[in-house]
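User: Teach me something about this protein's shape.
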Amino acid sequence: MIPVKDYILVFIQICLFGLFAFVNGSFPLINNLVFKYLGYPLATIGLIAILFAFIQLNTYLSPYPSPKKSAVLVTSGIFGIVRHPIYSGIIALMLGLSFVLADGFKLATSIITLFFFWYKSNYEEGLLSLVFPNYMPYKKSVGRFFPKLRRLIP
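Assistant: First, the predicted structure itself:
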């Protein structure tokens, strides 16, 4: 049985996505090439991260923070770089599109989504650590949304 908190978190997430997708900004950002040059690669990286994570999770994928009964802890591939690559990808995609569209409202929604994902991932990680005894060592060695620099620098 899925906890009520999971439903609430997914509902909030859908609302944030709806705000981002369907509300046009009332306060524009400076529309210049720097934002566009930064935005396109950021959005592309985000989309690629989401796709790789979806493919890697396969049948274990769920919109709810609570792990499925049949779930296994995936720590390789893109999950060996960041613990929450779907959240990372969504954040990068939203920020990138905000820059490309020079939309301040979308940028604000992206930042709110980042904080929301921080909260949701804290809850999710608490549940994962109860189900998977090896989650805590994984958590210490792999970054939440962004790679840990000490793992990238030899």
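Now, about its shape. The mean pLDDT is 90. The radius of gyration is 16 Å. If you'd like, I can walk through any region in more detail.
User: That's plenty for now, thanks!
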